[in-house]
Amino acid sequence: MIAPPSAASQSSKAKNFNLTIRVNCNKRKPHMRYPLSTLSLALTPIIMSLTSSAAPLGSWTSFRNGPSNSARNTLSLSAIESKFRDRRPTEFLTQGLIWATPVITANGDIIFGSADKWIYSLDSNNSLKWKYEIHDAPDAVVDSAAVLTPGNLVVVPGGDGYLHALDVNSGTKSWEFKSHAVSDASQEEGETVNSFEGNVQLGPNGILYAGSDNGTLYAVSQTGQELWSLTTGMMIWSTPAFEPSGAWMAFGSLDGYLYLVNPTTGAVFDKLSLGGDVKSSPTLGDDGNLYVGSSASYLYSVRVVKKGSGYRLKSRWRYKTDGEVYSSPVYYNQSVLFGSLGGHFYRVDHNGDLIWSYAVNSPVASSPALLSDGSVLFGARNGKLYALNGDSGERTWSYRTSTTQIMCNLDSSPAISADGKAYVGSYSGKLFGIPLEYCSQNRNDPMCEFGGKQDAPSVDDVPAPTSASLYFEDREGNLSHAPATATSTSDILKLQLVAYEDGNYILNAAIDSATYSLSIDPAPSTDYEVRIAADGSVMNVIPTGPNPFFKAGQTYKIHAKGRYFHRTNWFWDRFKWLGLNHFEANLEYTVPEAQTSASPSATAIQEWGLKGFYLTQPKALDTYTPAALEGQAYRLLSIPTAENSSIWIGVPALATQTGFAVLPEPSRGFIMRGQQNGTTVRGEGKFSLSAMGGSIPIEDGIFSATIGSDGNLEQGQYFIEASCMDIKGNGQSYDFPLNVAEQICNESLHLIGIGGFSSQLLAPPTSSIGSGSTANSASPFEISDIELHKKSIVIAYTANWSAGPHLLTTVEYRADGSIFNSDIRQLVDSDDHEGKLEIKWPKTKEAHSLRKFIVLFDDVPIAVPQF
After folding, report:
1. What DSSP element (H or E) covers 744?
2. Residues near 481 by Cβ (< 8 Å), separated by ≥ 6?
3. What sign has the CA pseudo-torsion 112, 117, 123, 125?
4. Which of 199, 380, 662, 820 could serve as 239's disulfide partner, Cβ 3.0–4.6 Å?
5. What b/e readout covers 118-139, taking b as 16+ CB neighbours within 10 angstroms?
6. Which DSSP state fits 101?
7. What are residue 195's phi and psi, to 5 degrees?
8. How far is 731 from 25, CA to CA, in rounded Å?
């Protein structure tokens, strides 16, 4: 367990020193846009709504249930337990992860969004009432909370860059508002995006407020007209909190500032640096102070004071936690409750002193909901919904929503219905409805756990109070010394460190990657390399050599030993040799016998659609990147070039409800050398994960999977290594803070991690292609000749297409199947029926006659003439 520092050492009024890694940073000053011509018209319906009486909008009306972000409900656990019996948890499955917090209407309907691009409405019986699809565009997920309005509308922020105002009862669109601070062309180029990732809020003045990834906060009327906009230096995910009379509002930005703004005009009263990204939404406490977290691992208390005709922000204190405070706090009885990505949940009094902490030992991005009796509910990365006693910090109960540990995160924040259910979304794509009395009335249900002030991961033995060992992490994230599920010949073995000291689980235990402290002795001997996850939590064993697969039908035994340390920060980890501890493990696993029935022909072209990308290593990326990676998709072609060898071409795509549409963005495409061993396949090379204006350029990448009996790819895994200096946030304007780097980068500032993906077979095998082939003669792009030069090739073509742009991929490879040169470029619309295209090669020493060519138009192989 990471023991929280003493309250005295954590509460501080002094400024801290912050070191940041700057990546292509162009800071922007706040800029207000105020279209006066539309103001009087837009204010008319607002004034009317404020002067009329209104019925309650619902039991949970917005992300934090109201304009002060109080996240409170009038129910109590005891009242719910005495009123209800025999209710069971429900679940509703969507086709994408759910990050968004649901809103709940007055008649009990639950409205929420999913990364599958749909907005859903369920009735109180968990039946679908309606659903609405946002614009089908790259990165167009719905991962933020809606808001209910007095006009019987629900306004939903979309990753497509629109606010969608829908009728609460039917889902019919009333209006939509487009975020516009960034041009469509700039967004298509991936520089910065207009996505609404911030939750939309309804102010006490009846105006809607929504933050965008383009760094702009928009004020919009309830009829969809823009009133004003304010541009900060970075993305806005924080939801504004309002002074009750509407005199001011406060919100955070990823530029590191807390902003204090006039809600009517958009004028900035003041801003205060919080030392790191402000993703947390401020809450206005009963004491009149603001409470908000930042990526600098602090919770801040800030007072708003009157200054002339305006207001200013004055820092009161800050409390140091064990990790980024992504969670938005809730105020309770002269204290605040909140979680951290470091794996603790805290109660701190209004003077900045610790009252208690609960060791979740799993990152907490979820924001808590508070009941009238002080019970506090929140989710965690481990897939559990927790109910803690707000006074003592003891666990009343927790409910496990999944038997797996992969893609089960409850980063969504719970919403409480009038009949006492907690609704929370999961990365599994499910929305759970959990009756708050269920666990108390079903204490024998293994999904329910009770008591204590510490939680820990489940393993297949009982670790000693002070011990450290490695455990197999299977495809579902479960830990054991011998995995229950079979290991594929293409698998990357993931060995997770589990360490205890004096009975406390050490969440930040990290394997020392220095070779002198690491020994692995597999039997029988096999070629492998060891790659330690960037955060040190997992030892990855990767098969290597000419045939980089484990042997089918073989049982392997591994004896591993080494040293670990307590990961703290970039500076102190330089001195980790001062306090190293030992671990040792004896592990065993069996590779199943080879299955040959599904092996494709050596000359068969395979094509799959890849989607559902996620990263589980390093662990912080499971919180930072899921929404962005959800929009990543490819059409993957495997084109045989030699025995058990192929060229893999990843054509960027947009995954839709009906298939995979080619996305003509060359920077997202990749070309790899593929290998096959029976039904297992593997590709190695460079590629890029790009979404929502950001990118991770992979220097060393591996894809591996098994071909199932239906020809589809199963058990998809990918390994990545990238320089953290090359990772971009939202376009060219992101400060990459050191505290974030400490979570996802190793001591050499490299990101090393592993994730998974899902796939869909797109086409049956087709005939072989290559130099001299006459296949696909009906293509809209045909090659008549290839001229060979010392430093380039020139392709003579005839073309006849009207819609575009398109992608043209050219690969030059050797006779043994290894890639010599490659190029991916965009072709624009053209009415030309013929032309020449020069492609410059960086490598020219080998004779062209020794090489062959593959050319794709989008994902269609083009016949290449003999030369």
Report:
1. helix 738-744
2. 460, 461, 469, 471, 472, 585, 586, 587, 588
3. negative
4. 199
5. bbbbbebeeeebbebbbeebbb
6. P
7. -55, 140
8. 9
The residues, ordered by sequence, that sit 6+ positions from 303 with a Cβ below 8 Å of its Cβ are 288, 289, 290, 313, 314, 316
3-state helix, strand, coil in the chain (%, to 5): 10, 45, 50
**Token output for 300:** 């801040």
Q: What is the number of other CB atoms lying within 10 angstroms of the CB of residue 843?
A: 9
In 3-state terms, what secondary structure has residue 613? strand
Strand, helix or coil for residue 84? coil
Cβ atoms of 360 and 366 within 8 Å: the answer is no
- Show the tokens assigned to 86: 């025999």
Whole-model pTM: value is 0.87
Does residue 144 contact residue 183 with C-beta atoms inside 8 Å?
Answer: no
Residue 47: how many CB atoms within 10 A of its CB? 11
773's tokens:
């082939």
3-state secondary structure of 397: strand
- Contact assessment for residue 622 and residue 614, using Cβ atoms and an 8 Å cutoff: yes
d(CA 381, CA 507): 13
Residue with tokens 């790659």: 531
Tokens 């990545």 belong to residue? 720
Residue 684 parent element (H or E): strand 680-691
Q: 767: which 2 tokens?
A: 């005939």
Give 858's DSSP letter: T
Secondary structure of residue 730 in the 3-state scheme: coil
Instruction: Provide the phi-psi class of 392: left if phi over 0, else alpha when psi is between -120 and 50, else beta.
Output: alpha
CA 121 distance to own-chain centroid:
24
Report the amino acid identity of residue 442: N
Distance of CA 648 to the CA centre of its chain: 26
Mean pLDDT by 10 residues, the chain (867 residues): 39 35 40 46 40 65 96 94 95 93 96 94 96 85 94 94 96 95 54 80 97 94 97 93 96 96 97 95 97 95 95 97 94 97 95 97 95 97 96 97 91 96 96 98 96 86 86 86 72 91 89 73 80 91 86 83 83 69 86 62 78 86 72 88 87 83 85 88 85 72 89 89 76 56 81 89 57 49 80 81 78 81 78 74 61 83 72
Which tokens sit at 774? 């006459």
In whole angstroms, give the CA distance from residue 816 to residue 511: 39
CA distance 705 to 681: 6
CB within 8 A of 18, min separation 6: which ones? 275, 276, 296, 737, 738
658 token code pair: 């009906």
| Residue 457 near residue 382, CB atoms below 8 Å | yes
